[in-house]
């Protein structure tokens, strides 16, 4: 088996890396895009034509496990939202929010979010923020406040905000990779210089000839402005949600030690993730993939030779 990683570099550029499990080098790593995109190639000619219509038609091409995962997510989100409504009704109260300039504003616990508070001050302030900190902890802009708090809005020039922005970009990339390759995503964090996402492709490769199609899918997802939706899920339910992905199941088994964990959805992708994230995929304005490489699943990265085809 093999893993694929796509990694970003500064200024919106991307570096695609490929990971592999121990074993012989996969064949055809410099092959044509058609050799590495079996899901899209299995689509009918009419469906492939519909792809050009953008995100509105992407759902017709989602792999079966993506559709099943989304249905399960919607059930979990419905229960999560109902829990929040009940908590707001039961525990909601007026709270004081302290801003960096020393001023305080009134808000409501379990209802008011950093984005709403920022919008009441300045629409530009709200729309240019990447993420918030609440009592020093990074916080989704749309996540309700739970009590009195010190709130600060961070823009892209802040290092922590850039990390959040690139992490969200990795989720966007992961969504595109699932749609193109129908492989198994592993991990996709931000780094000091950008981000990457690993994908297991069972011996297939991600040649540079695929870059334009991946970028087209990413642009389609960006134009759709899919929101990043945060849901708390019970640990036992995570095994059902990610039953089609052995890597996510391993992460749940080894890393989730609490009764619940958070998952995020952006468009077709649902991922196990602590967050936080940007508000929606439309905040990513540029996407370019530049190179691809191989590495062992837990080993060092080795660049793939340039395609000669």
The level of helicity is 25-40%
- How many E-type strands? 15
Mean pLDDT: 81
Helices and strands, in order, run as EEHHHEEHHEEEHEEHEHHEEEEE
Could you give a short account of the major beta sheet? Answer: 5 strands, mixed
Please indicate the percent range of residues in DSSP E strands (runs of 2 or more): 15-25%
Radius of gyration (Å): 20 Å
What is the end-to-end distance? 23 Å
Strand order of the largest sheet: 8-9-1-2-13
What count of helical segments does DSSP give? 9
Q: Kindly name the structural category.
A: alpha+beta
Give the low-pLDDT segments.
1-57, 299-309
Query: Shape, please?
Result: globular
Provide a descriptive summary of the structure in words.
- The chain has 309 residues and is α+β, with helices and mostly antiparallel strands.
- Helices cover 35% and strands 23% of the residues.
- It is built from nine helices and 15 strands.
- The strands form four sheets. A five-stranded mixed sheet has the order 8-9-1-2-13, with helices on both faces.
- A hairpin with a 2-residue loop joins strand 5 and strand 6.
- The radius of gyration is 20 Å and the shape is globular.
- It starts with a strand and ends in a 6-residue tail after the last strand.
- The N terminus and C terminus are likely disordered.
